[in-house]
């Protein structure tokens, strides 16, 4: 467990430093990249909270800041008055696309490029298996099914 925590802390530090130099916080980039790769570049706030490392209140504050910066918009859910979507704006998409090349270089340098293809496939499979146990709402398929049940 210690080795996992050390590795996570080291990778997080490298990514945080790189992203700050590129003008975005790690948590903001995490949220924007999740939105960028989602259908219609939007997620229900509950889904985003399930996929994020932030608490619900931390996510709300971050979305407020991103909304103030014009990078994300909050849109009410048509089928559930209590729910809303976080939607990546064109400015947010441009920010993600501007940061992405350098970020992917770093991912390659400290993660994917270090592992053989077979090791990477196995490692990702193990991570997904563990995530289903410790954070089932982070699995996009599970989160979508849960959201559909609520509507």
Structure description:
The protein is built from seven helices and three strands. The longest helix is centred in the C-terminal third of the chain and has 23 residues, at 90-112. A hairpin with a 7-residue loop joins strand 2 (72-76) and strand 3 (84-88). Strands 1-3-2 form a three-stranded antiparallel beta sheet. With 151 residues, it is mainly alpha-helical. It has one domain: Winged helix-like DNA-binding domain superfamily/Winged helix DNA-binding domain (Arc Repressor Mutant, subunit A). The mean pLDDT is 90. 68% of the residues lie in helices and 9% in strands. Helix 1 (2-21) packs across helix 5 (90-112) and helix 3 runs antiparallel to helix 7.
Number of strands: 3
Q: SSE string, helix = H, strand = E?
A: HHEHHEEHHH
Named at the architecture level, the CATH assignment is Orthogonal Bundle
Summed up, the domain count is 1
Q: In DSSP terms, counting alpha (H) and pi (I) runs of 4 or more, how many helices? A: 7
| Helix share, percent | 55-70%
Calculate the mean pLDDT score and round it: 90
Point out poorly predicted stretches.
Answer: none
Q: Judging from the principal axes of the Cα atoms, what is the shape?
A: globular
From the alpha carbons, calculate the radius of gyration and give it in angstroms.
16 Å
Name of the top-level CATH class: Mainly Alpha
CATH level 3 topology: Arc Repressor Mutant, subunit A
Largest sheet properties = 3 strands, antiparallel
Approximately how much beta-strand content do the residues carry? Answer: 5-15%
């Amino acid at each position: 467990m210690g080795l996992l925590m050390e590795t996570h802390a080291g990778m997080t530090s490298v990514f945080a430093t790189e992203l700050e130099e590129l003008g975005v916080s790690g948590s903001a980039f995490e949220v924007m990249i999740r939105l960028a790769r989602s259908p219609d570049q939007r997620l229900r706030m509950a889904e985003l909270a399930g996929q994020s490392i932030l608490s619900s209140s931390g996510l709300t504050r971050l979305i407020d800041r991103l909304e103030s910066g014009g990078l994300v918009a909050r849109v009410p859910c048509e089928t559930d008055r209590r729910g809303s979507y976080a939607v990546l704006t064109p400015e947010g998409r441009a920010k993600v696309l501007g940061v992405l090349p350098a970020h992917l270089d770093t991912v390659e340098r400290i993660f994917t490029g270090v592992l053989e293809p077979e090791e990477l496939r196995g490692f990702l499979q193990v991570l997904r298996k563990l995530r289903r146990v410790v954070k089932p709402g982070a699995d996009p398929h599970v989160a979508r099914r849960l959201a559909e049940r609520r509507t």
